[in-house]
Amino acid sequence: MIRSQDLKSLLMNAATLHGHFCPGLALGVLAGSQAVREMSWESEGLEHVLAIVETNNCFSDGIQYTTGCTFGNNALIYRNYGKTAFTLTRRSGEGIRLIVKNDFYEKLQLNSPDYFKLFDKVIKKRDNSPKLLARFKDLAAETSLTLIKYDITELFNIERVNVDIPKYAPMHNSVKCDKCGENASYRVLNGSGIINKG
Fold first, then answer.
1. 62 closest CA partner among 28, 36, 92
2. pLDDT at residue 192 greater than cutoff 60
3. Which residues are CB-neighbours of 137 under 8 A, at least 6 positions away?
């Protein structure tokens, strides 16, 4: 889907992972697929290719889906900068970083005012009345499908970068917890003082 630039199918599949359509997910799909296409790298889930996300919102699920770099395969790194940005990199540190342009949200509010009004009611104020929620979901899908038609350079600043890469994720044996009897990572239990050191 990435090679053929089938962004609609990518978005549909990413929404299955994410649970709903939204502009943030669409941006993640756009950024992730662009980086993979431009760098010609595919994740094997073995930490050779890494995605570094700078936010933990909807955008990150689009990145996980399109790059194949996930928390579960230790190839997704979260750095809490609060930016709608991500870097796709190899172990060498060579990579590509995409960040949403500063004026993106203002443009989106101008182009999709109804979506933002409902976003305020449904998401920020937690008004989940069935009729309002259904309308919000429709507008979110419509807005997302519109976003993936934009030229990537209208939405993102893109630059080649060199980044510091963390070591491979450590692997630890599981041990039985002295308190609850359940298996858990030795590293976690040992650091908590729960394990009987004798």
1. 28
2. no
3. 20, 21
Q: Enumerate domains of the chain plus CATH numbers.
A: 7-105+144-162 (3.30.1330.20), 169-198 (no CATH)
pLDDT tens sequence across 31-90: 999 999 999 888 888 889 999 999 999 999 999 999 999 999 999 999 999 999 999 999
Distance (Å, rounded) from C-alpha 131 to C-alpha 98?
36
Cα 54–155–149 angle (5° rounding)?
A: 120
3-state secondary structure the chain: CCCCCCHHHHHHHHHHHHCCCCHHHHHHHHHHHHHHHHHCCCCCCCCCEEEEECCCCHHHHHHHHHHCCCCCCCCEEECCCCCCEEEEEECCCEEEEEEECCCHHHHHHHHCHHHHHHHHHHHHCCCCCHHHHHHHHHHHHHHHHHHCCCCHHHHEEEEEEECCCCCCCCCCCEEECCCCCCEEEHHHHHHHCCCCCC
Is the pTM value of this prediction over 0.70?
yes
What pLDDT does residue 186 have?
Answer: 66
